[in-house]
Amino acid sequence: MDSIDNKAVACPKVSILLAARNEEATILRCLESLDQLTYPKLQLEILIGNDDSTDATESLILNYIQDKPYFKYHFINQQIESLQGKTNVLSQLAHHATGEYFFYCDADIAVAPTWLESMLSLFKPNVGVVVGVTRMVPTGRFAAMQSLEWLFSITAMRFFSLWEVPFTGMGNNMAVSRKAYWAVGGYEKIGFSIVEDFALFVAILAQNYGFVQGFQPQLVSLSLPAHTLSELLRQRKRWVKGAMQAPWPIKLSFFASALFFPLLLILAFVAPIWALLLSALHFILVGTICLIGLRILRQADLIPHIPLFWFYFSLNNTTMLINYLLPTPTIWKGRNY
After folding, report:
1. What's the fold here for domain 2-132+170-225?
2. How far apart are CA 118 and CA 48, in angstroms?
3. Residue 108 gets which letter from DSSP?
4. What would the pLDDT profile of 14-65 be if each residue is shown by its tens digit?
5. Rounded to whole angstroms, how far apart are CA atoms 114 and 121?
């Protein structure tokens, strides 16, 4: 017992903030993974904000946590002025949080058992935010394409982060120091954003805090993939809308990726040899980045999918730009934004 107490004393208090809205299909998987964290329970609190769910989310949560005092349930049915949806929930949970660090994950995420220790080890002096790694549960080829898309982007972000070039936060696997969160005034000061993780990331860096893009196997969380193209399009419309709020280098990189495929088609008619050469070079570049990331993160099951990923990656970026430009609403958790 003494060794357990001593370990708890040596570990900082940690708060996990989890927003849940109509998550009856996924919430138990998430809660079970959080319950299996190896972090000392005496130094851990898991704050769950039920965002006015209309399904069985509430009863599932309450039944699961009834004998687990480090889980704390909050029903969110009021709205802070200027805030909506997930941003509103996380803002209210932050006022209940007592930890030195705030951790964020989504209700469809299963975190690794050593998630907290691995993320905390990256908080050096003046680091305000640490971003983790996420991939999809291996449920088939479509899920594998989505996993490779995530890991390709994260590998590229990791490369640029070595030169302290920031790209984005990820609300399904991210942590911030309590000091940094309140230095920016919390979400009340930041205001509503449909990509609340990116808004918090940018606000913290604007206060001259540093960031770390984590890149270890121990940080890999498993998310549930989009099962259909229409579901993927709804998800990505929100993401691209967030990307349009990013600095110009990030926006330019998105437009370059989105326009690559149509420009390649035009080049194929004008100069087919050059189009073939450019395709080969791009194929090698994308495949190499994927392979490096998968090797470091030990996600070898995705390696056989790399050749097909190039076609998915090239066409998907173009599709996402068209989807963003279409005059359709942005739907998130059953609400239109």
Report:
1. Spore Coat Polysaccharide Biosynthesis Protein SpsA; Chain A (3.90.550)
2. 22
3. T
4. 999 999 999 999 999 999 999 999 999 999 999 999 998 999 999 999 999 9
5. 11
pTM for the whole structure:
0.91
Report yes or no: 155 and 293 within 8 Å, Cβ to Cβ: yes
Is 97 in contact with 139 (CB distance < 8 Å)?
A: no
Please, where in the chain does CATH 3.90.550.10 lie? 2-132+170-225
Give me the DSSP letters along 243-310. Answer: HTTS-HHHHHHHHHHHHHHHHHHHHHHH-HHHHHHHHHHHHHHHHHHHHHHHHHHT-GGGGGGHHHHH
The one-letter code for the residue type at 140 is G
Calpha distance 9→1 (Å, rounded): 13
Q: Does an H or E element contain 211, and which? A: strand 210-213
Pick left, alpha or beta for residue 218 (phi over 0 → left; psi -120 to 50 → alpha; otherwise beta): alpha
